[in-house]
């Protein structure tokens, strides 16, 4: 393979508020001889598509601050859940031409595992599925879908059998829409309430079959939930005021699944929850979880394909993507998930092969 232009998105520094393209990251290019890159027993991959997710803001921090996700290293490319194609291999488990998902750098070409190692790093071979683009492996078949599946499959599936009402905050986000379609398919008896921040996103929730969809910026969440509750299961993507509204409307022995806390990403005070007393007053169970963290989550990762693929083939779960074309536009994708501008799963299509069905 000849020398190629290798685009990279470099992390420049830690945001104190909202992430800013060009200030906290920068797209650069360099020449790379793909035949000469040392693999050190690993593989060289060509990036096809990469995910942009709100949680990445948590990674943009001083490494001395301990959190659930590993920090990004200043001066190095950022990385995230991606789908790629093996170009060269010194690992007998992979061959050139294999499609793989894992945590790869925001670079056209990179070595896995490379010199930056953390607990989220992994690499798994995947097939090309007829009718679906490879980018689906970073959305409905990737971090988005597998996160939603992990939480529900492990902690809510049994509870749902005897429950009546589910509330999903941030329901129009990628995880929220996946969860709503999944729950509608396997627990059709549940009444689903979901919130979003714009009219088009409320309309999207209604199109998914959400029973009660509302704009939390224009309507009083506590009153909506009081009218349509009580809430047996609360899937929390946001924390803050919506979680307070849910807490005062939970049923006795209700379940809260803590999946995200986007309300406090850029302004910590907006993520504050004040009604913790409802947890003991109503005998609530609060379960936090992370994608592929711990033996139970690893088991769910492996059970995902068997249960979810038939739902995809039946059209029960749809692939909705907000595409950003080209690695040079990845900073726009990173910003969009922090401002709510994306409509569908935010995906960066790095190579046209990643977006072809």
From TrEMBL:
TM helices/strands, residue ranges: none
Keyword Chaperone among UniProt keywords: no
Domain Oxidoreductase N-terminal: 36-114
Every Alcohol dehydrogenase-like C-terminal domain range: 174-299
The keyword Oxidoreductase belongs to this UniProt entry's keyword annotation: yes
Pfam families per the UniProt record, alphabetical: ADH_N_2 (PF16884), ADH_zinc_N (PF00107)
InterPro entries xrefs: ADH-like_C, ADH_N_2, GroES-like_sf, MDR_fam, NAD(P)-bd_dom_sf
Keywords from the UniProt entry: Oxidoreductase
Gene3D superfamilies assigned to the protein according to its UniProt record, in alphabetical order: Medium-chain alcohol dehydrogenases, catalytic domain, NAD(P)-binding Rossmann-like Domain
Protein name: Enoyl reductase (ER) domain-containing protein
Species whose genome carries this gene: Somion occarium
Taxonomic lineage: Eukaryota, Fungi, Dikarya, Basidiomycota, Agaricomycotina
